[in-house]
Structures are given as C-alpha cells and as structure tokens.
C-alpha cells in the first residue's frame, strides 16, 4: 500500500467507517479503511447472544444497499454483521482488517497513522468509530467483593457467565433494559439501577410503531434534535450525559417480568453495592451497562478538552484542518450513532473533505 497514493485514511470499519467509505468511493477519492477486528462486522458478532437491533430493518440499512429482511423485522446481531460484510463486498470498499491503529500524529503537514507495523500518510483522516471503544467501568468495581461476578455489558454473552441468584444491572439505558428483560424472563431476580431514561411514546414493534416510528426516528431524532436547531442545542448536553430513551423496550415490559427499578449505585459497604437511598444490595452478579469512554489516547494531536473529548463542530475539527470524526454520540444529531443517521454525517463530512482534496479551480461532480 503506497501512502503517497492515499487522499484519505479512515480509522474504523463499522457502520460509520463503511458509510464514509461509500461516499469517498462515489467521489473517486483514494482511501483505505483500517479496522482492528479480524473480520468486517465483528463488533456486532461480539455482542450478547440474544441481541436484536433496537430498530426494525427498514431503519437499519446503510446508504446504497437495502437491508435483506422484511421492513418490520428486527435483525439479529449476526444478521447485522453479515450485512456489513456484504456491504463491503458490494461496493468493493478497501477495508484492511486486523489492523489496530497505534497512533495518529502529524508530520510535514500530513497525517501519519501507525498501525500493525505499517506507517501510512494522508492529507486527511476520518476517525469513524460508531461508538466509543473503551468500556467505562466506575471506580466502584474495584471495591466490590472478589466473589461477585462483574461484567461490562460489552463482555456479556449469556446467563451462563453468571453465578446463580439475583443480578444487578447498573445503567438503565437500552442495553441494561434488554439484558434485564432477558434475565428476568429466565426467572432471575433483577434490579435495574439508574436514572429512568424514558422510552419512545409508541411500541416500535407494533402497529403504532409502524405508523409513527418514522416521525420519531427520521423527524425528531434526525431533523429536530440537531446542533442547528434551538431544540437540539438545548437537549444535547443532557443527551450527552444520560442514556437515550428506550426504543424497543417499554417500562411496562420490565414491570411485567418483575424487573425492579432502583436508585443509582452510589458507594459500597462491606464489598456490596449501596444505592443512593441507602439500600445495600446482596447480589452475586453485577453487569455494568455504563457505556463507553473515548479511548482516544492514541491520537497525538492537540484536539481534546479537559474531559478528553475531541473538540469538533459537527465532526469537523476546526483547529486541525483535514481531521474529522463520524459516529460520535450526537455528533450532529440524536441519530448520529444510529444506523439510519450515520450516512448523513458521512456524506456531509465527505463533501467537506472532497472540496479540500481538489486542486484550486477543479469542478468535481458528486
């Protein structure tokens, strides 16, 4: 692979990176997509066994290729992984799998990416990660008794990993709710700890969901909750700190199977988790559904704020020309990390970088 021939390096081969690749290919730009996984779609294959996407297939396709399921079916994580693999094959996207990026820096006005024993250069780089890669585990994990089974949701596969008895799920977003529902249906006592994130106002899997899901996902999440609307700018700080509303699972579903909502975990006592209301829980299992951290320590560029978050405007790093992000939470809109929303961000970023890639006076058709 000749670095001199590359216009763009894309870091990340999930739905965000592949969406960027689709639009780079349409522009005729020379690029490579670097992905740490051994196989395209592996980030989905590694999820828990029973996971289905929270949205039906009609919202789960990337630009240019329909999802091969009935529109109201909920794809499994394996089906989503296979779809991404087919997407790469269909558009002949240059993905280099098994290539973990070790550093991103700058030299002589060009970006330098070191990964898997190779060094690549390009004038522009897109960090395209569909979610933050580093599981967030609070300090409290080190204070629990050693005989308590602790898993982050990203490491949970099925109940065989757990001890007999109750399960405490810390984090009440979509992952926590779905795992809690599964375990409670198996007869487990389940506590779901954390702020109630609410849920979309209709049941996505039912008739009203079929009717109103486009208004929620394509209008509210995609067009109203954006950084360009007063409504979106007001909501964004809260959305960045808390979980997103439950999409497929309703609060009534959790109540029906006996999932017990409880206050957040605030401390430990005698090696046991303690809720904010003072209740001590004796649970032999804790699953931390506490999200992910940036994990961008490999980026050796002055682009981060005090919390380690990349500073950008809609994915464009203004103080570092030629560097972009796609796939971050609320990058541009509430839908920026959702499969039906990532394509718009990818197209917008590629439009910007394509203009920068053209010699002065060049007219390039989209």
Description of the molecule:
- The chain has two domains: 3-134 and 292-357, 3-Layer(bba) Sandwich (FAD/NAD(P)-binding domain); 137-199 and 245-288, 3-Layer(bba) Sandwich (FAD/NAD(P)-binding domain).
- It is 27% helix and 19% strand.
- The protein has helices spanning 15-27, 42-45, 77-91, 174-185, 207-224, 230-241, 251-256, 339-357, and strands at 8-11, 31-34, 95-96, 101-107, 110-115, 118-122, 124-128, 134-135, 149-152, 167-170, 190-193, 260-262, 265-269, 272-275, 285-288, 292-293, 323-326.
- β5 and β6 (118-122) form a beta hairpin.
- α1 packs parallel to α3 (77-91) and α1 packs parallel to α8.
CATH architectural grouping of the largest domain: 3-Layer(bba) Sandwich
The shape, in one word, is globular
Task: Provide the CATH topology of the largest domain.
Answer: FAD/NAD(P)-binding domain
Largest sheet features? 5 strands, parallel
CATH superfamily of the largest domain: FAD/NAD(P)-binding domain
Top-tier CATH class of the largest domain: Alpha Beta
Query: What is the spatial order of strands in the main beta sheet?
Result: 3-2-1-7-17
- Beta-strand share of residues: 15-25%
Count of DSSP H/I helices: 8
> Oligomeric status of the shown chains?
single chain
Structural class: alpha/beta
Q: State the low-pLDDT regions, or none.
A: 360-366
Sequence of secondary-structure elements: EHEHHEEEEEEEEHEHHHEEEEEEH
**What is the number of domains?**
2
Helical proportion, percent range: 25-40%
Give the overall pLDDT as a whole number.
Answer: 90
Radius of gyration: 21 Å
Report how far the terminal alpha carbons are from each other: 26 Å
Q: How many DSSP-defined strands?
A: 17
């Amino acid at each position: 692979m000749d670095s001199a021939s590359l216009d763009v390096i894309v870091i990340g081969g999930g739905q965000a990176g592949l969406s960027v690749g689709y639009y780079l290919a349409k522009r005729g730009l020379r690029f490579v997509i670097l992905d740490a996984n051994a196989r395209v779609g592996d980030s989905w294959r590694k999820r828990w066994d029973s996971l289905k996407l929270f949205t039906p297939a009609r919202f789960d396709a990337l630009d240019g290729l329909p999802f091969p399921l009935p529109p109201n079916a909920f794809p499994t994580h394996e089906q989503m992984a296979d779809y991404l693999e087919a997407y790469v094959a269909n558009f002949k996207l240059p993905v280099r799998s098994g290539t973990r990026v070790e550093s991103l820096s700058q030299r002589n006005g060009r970006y330098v990416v070191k990964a898997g024993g190779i060094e690549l250069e390009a004038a522009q780089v897109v960090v395209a990660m569909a979610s933050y890669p580093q599981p967030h585990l609070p300090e409290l994990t080190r204070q629990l008794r050693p005989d308590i089974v602790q898993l982050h949701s990203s490491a949970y596969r099925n109940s065989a990993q757990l001890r007999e008895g109750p399960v405490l799920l810390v984090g009440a977003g979509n992952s926590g709710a779905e795992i809690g529902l599964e375990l409670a249906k198996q007869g487990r006592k389940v506590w779901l700890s954390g702020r109630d994130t609410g849920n979309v106002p209709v049941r996505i899997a039912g008739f009203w969901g079929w009717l109103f899901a486009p208004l929620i996902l394509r209008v509210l999440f995609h067009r109203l909750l954006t950084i360009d609307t007063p409504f979106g700018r007001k909501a964004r700080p809260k959305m960045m700190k808390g979980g997103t509303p439950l999409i497929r699972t309703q609060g009534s579903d959790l109540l029906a199977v006996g999932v017990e909502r409880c206050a957040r975990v605030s401390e430990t006592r005698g090696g046991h988790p303690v809720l904010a209301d003072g209740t001590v829980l004796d649970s032999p299992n804790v699953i931390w559904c506490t999200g992910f951290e940036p994990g961008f320590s490999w980026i050796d560029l002055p682009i981060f704020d005090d919390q380690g978050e990349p500073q950008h405007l809609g994915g464009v790093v203004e103080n570092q020309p030629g560097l972009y992000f796609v796939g971050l939470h609320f990058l541009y809109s509430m839908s920026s990390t959702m499969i039906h929303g990532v394509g718009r961000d990818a197209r917008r970023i590629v439009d910007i970088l394509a203009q920068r890639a053209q010699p002065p006076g060049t007219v390039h058709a989209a």
